[in-house]
Amino acid sequence: MFRHLLKLTWKRKSRNLMLSLEILLAFAIVFAVTAFGLRYAQLYRMPLGFDGTDVWSVAVQAGDNGNRRFDDAVYDSLRRGVGELPEVSSVGFAAFEPYAMSTSSSDLRRDGESGKQVRTELLDADDGLARVLGLELVEGRWFSALDNGSAQRPVVINRRMAQAMFPGERALGQQFVDGKGTHVSSTYRVVGVVDAFRAKGELAAPVNFVFTRFEPGKNDRDARTMLLKVKPGTARDFERRLNARLKLIRNDWSYQIEPLSSTRASMMKSRIIPLIVVGIIAAFMLLMVAFGLFGALWQNTTQRIPEIGLRRALGASAGQIYRQIVAEQFMLSSIAIALALLLLVQLPLTGALGDNLNWQVFTGAAMLSMAVIYLLSLLCAVYPGWRASRLSPTEALHYE
Amino acid sequence: MFRNYLLTAWKVFMRRKLFTAINLLCIVLTLVVLMVIASLLETAFHPSGVEGRSDRFLQVFTIRMDGHEDGHRSTSPLGYKLIEKYLKPMPGVERVAAVTLPASVSVYQGPNVSELQMRHADADYWKVLDFRLLAGRLPTAADDAAGRMIAVLNASSARRLFPGAPKAAIGQRIDVGGQMFEVVGVVEDAMHLNAYADIWAPISTFTSSDYRNELTGMFVALVMAERSADIARIRDQVAQIARGVVADDPKEWKRIYFWADGKLDLFARILTNSDDVPDSGAGKLLAGITVAMIVFMLLPALNLVNLNTGRIMERRSEIGVRKAFGATSSQLAVQLVIENVLLCLAGGLIALLATAGVLAWLESADLIPYLKVELNLAVFGWGMLIATVFGLLSGVLPAWKMSRLDPVHALKGAI
């Protein structure tokens, strides 16, 4: 039976080639969309590392393009002035807030070893940030006054960074440096490790992350974003009182105030919208492929009515004819899918898309898209197959 | 002869109404997607309305500074000093406007906080762009000079802050991030590169005047030519000016680049990161878009090929007769390609209507704020071009197959 099917398919190879090419392309498109979606689902379930509820960010715009340095007194007056508001429970400073589009990254390496550079994202953070963002350390401690006057710049790293920089070793207390070649621009010492930290939010891939301790006036850049943890249930109109208080501290500056929840919403939107657009276009494509397959199969069976009549005359039952049509379509789809998988498996094998297409996502997406394509092609075969099987042998043999 | 082709095509299409419908539907679905993209691109690169004079102005968006060390570079929007000192005195142009990129600000009204996108613009900005004024007036050079705290709102924000007709907002005072502004004008909503914002105020209303001393900052310059023919000359002029700009700190920065670009060039420059060469990479970008569109057409075209191949098999007796009476293979192939292109053009017309519907939905769905896409003659032309390309793409293979049929077998009805 199977050899017979193969023979029939081979006899019409050029026609079937076009059909399977179409199925192959459709499979690739479904695969792309499901892989995209599954990766997001996978990322969403990973630990985020911080708690952004009831956190507000205040970007201080001093109108100097970041060229001047704020001194200790400025930070102190901001911290104290805002901390006095009854709604505010803690205050911290950072170079930019979580969920922001900004990134600061660098290639770091271990001291003394020329060689392995580790690509890392960095964020300047002051002693208060851990409390504001609810960072939980798995080892060591967060920055504190203990670090004042430390020769190396204290850092807290995430576990991913610890594994990348110090594989198989304990990261705490170790040092690494920034700079190209033999030139060392700064040295860092690990004082703590957090489990995870994904600054770009739930749908961002995990990266190596380093918090560097920010000390007013001592770094080459200011940390001009204030992060506030407010009491639960603080309404949006708090912004006005906050702004008024900030204006009391420095009237000639402007302040961009935003709850982290709205920064998060716009970040999520910017990541979800591409998926939705691609999804809608893919859905249209699939609809089209469904129509096309249906039409092509219909025409196929119409052409083969004499052949079907002959089989019926020789004693094949309606069910057998029906099964033949469906099985042929099933085989055609299987060949196309196998070919597509053979091509697509190169992506995770060569690591072209890195961790974005890991094996888990690949298998999930392959399974899902296989289900979709089989369902689609079988649905398209059901009606033409049924129509063909219904013909009585006499009619079919006389069909012109 | 051509009339005969048309008649045959019509007869064939009508004989199998279901398949013609399926064919048409596939064509329409593909073309709608492509036409929506084409009309969005057309709106972005050849806008009408507020930025309708885009063939007469160029934009300077970013300044790139290269340091003495390798790889040391900074790219940012322009500073006001650069525009005032270097661009505004440029001879042979109608005017040069300075405007900031939109930044989000909060407007406080009692317990309500509204978040708006704000631009600071000088008086020239209002003359370069063609805003439709709904009520009140636009800021003038006198307002800039006096540093008056005035603001212009767009229609949606005016309605949100002060419900009622646009007039209701005129003369009202609003608290924008702690600064009090008086609303003097309301303009129509606009979603364009330089026009998009909710609220505008004169540049001189900034809390501190530090912006005057900066080469880099958050400004964009719009250079308006007297005639569109001057554009090429102005582009060279700006490149010339850029070579003469001295950095604030010449020890740190060696070389400065900025370019005056039209809309397509600007987009291409940002996308291809070519901010240190005069060529913006627009050619590459256009080629990329064309290739992407053809790749997108691949699956639908394959689909149509499959449907068409089926249809030919039904017509083999007709083909046999024509071949027996001396029609050449190429004549038959041309006939089928013409049939297919006709079907695609018919599909294109339907798709154009559907595109209008999709665009209307996009405008109302608020995915892109203030979006307004016009279906003009250019979009119609693009649509028909896309339909023809699609028809050729999907018609050639079946036509070749059909012309190869052996007349003897075809007449007998065998494959």
Assembly annotation: heterodimer
Sheet-strand content of chain B, in percent, reads 15-25%
Strand order of the largest sheet of chain A: 3-4-9-6-8-7
Number of domains of chain A: 2
Structurally, the number of domains of chain B stands at: 2
Kindly state the number of beta strands of chain A.
Answer: 11
Largest interface: A-B, 49 and 49 residues
Beta-strand residue percentage of chain A: 15-25%
Coarse shape of chain B: elongated
Fold topology:
The complex is a heterodimer of chains A (400) and B (415).
Chain A: H1 2-11, H2 13-45, E1 55-61, H3 72-83, E2 88-94, E3 105-110, E4 118-125, H4 129-133, E5 137-140, E6 153-158, H5 159-165, E7 175-178, E8 186-194, E9 209-213, E10 225-230, H6 238-249, E11 254-259, H7 260-303, H8 305-313, H9 318-344, H10 346-350, H11 359-390, H12 393-398
Parallel strand pairs in A: 4-9, 6-8
Antiparallel strand pairs in A: 1-10, 1-11, 2-10, 3-4, 3-7, 5-8, 6-9, 7-8
Chain B: H1 2-15, H2 17-45, E1 57-60, E2 62-67, E3 73-77, H3 80-87, E4 95-100, E5 103-109, E6 112-121, H4 123-128, E7 133-136, H5 141-146, E8 150-154, H6 155-161, E9 173-176, E10 179-187, E11 199-202, E12 219-224, H7 231-244, E13 253-257, H8 263-272, H9 282-314, H10 316-324, H11 329-365, H12 377-403, H13 407-412
Parallel strand pairs in B: 6-11, 8-10
Antiparallel strand pairs in B: 1-12, 2-3, 2-13, 4-12, 5-6, 5-9, 7-10, 8-11, 9-10
